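Model it.
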Amino acid sequence: MDDEPDTKKNSNDIHDNAGNNGDDITSTQTAVRPMTDPPPEDDLAPSPPESGEENVESLSIEARYENGRKAAKKRHWQESPYAVGLVEPTWRDELTRRGGRDDDDEDGNGPNRSMCDDLCSDEMDPTCGCLIASGVVCSRLGAGRVGNMAVLKERSVLVEEEVVDEEAGEGEDEPKTTVRRVYKNKIEIVVGPYWPFMMCVTYPLIFGVSGLTAVKAIPGKHPIFIAAWSACTFGLIYSLFSVGCRDPGILTRHRSPPHASWRWNDQAQTYRPRRAVYDTDCACVIEEFDHTCPWTGTGIGKKNMTAFQSFVALIFICLIMDILLLTGAIP
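Modeled.
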């Protein structure tokens, strides 16, 4: 019986020692703070700016100019009457942007980089070289720009357009429309992004083979055959011009759908018909788009499809006639 108080006393001492040891361990862990912990915050220090805010005063002159250029580029894109993508407003701006980049620019493929680097790059813009040629030539000619297409001639015409009357159409299944007459620019001569290929490859091939045939094989042939060959050759040259230098069907921008079947396109910020497609090479929406032909330098769509089919047919006819004439198969 006398040993019980000693036992309780010893157990209390053990608990007290354990508690003291635990305090020592805690204090030791608190005292040894990792060196990577940030210092305590100062209540008087200014709060950091919220995400997305920029200190304009800290920007350099070059950064301010770049921000202003991007804002003007976006504003020009949004105010364009055509359904185009986000490109430089003018050809001079295109040339300046591609020619004035630094080598570390993430999307740079301008003339300040070597040709081998451009050809081996997976992120190379396929129209890079042609856009540089367009920047050099079209900026000197004063040509306009619609997407990646160069407008050489346009005129103002009076057209009729339907306008949806939103107030009169409330509560009705189909909104009422009113017709008004306005002046709009009509594109007459426009070349696509690959016009250097058409001018430097396609046309020289046609003129070269036809000129050789005219000199070597045509003299002495029957006049009717000469007339037929001349008609096909001139038809081929004109059909190529009608394909490569005419509007392929560039869609004007529609901020509201004229019909229920139209769908929204984010790249051009417009509503488009079902068969209209945004062409990344031409950087615009083309009605009834089929494909982009580098031989003609432009996209093939609603307005130049007939000329393109004529061009394909005539090129085979002329090629067969020239081969037969040059080989002497036709006496």
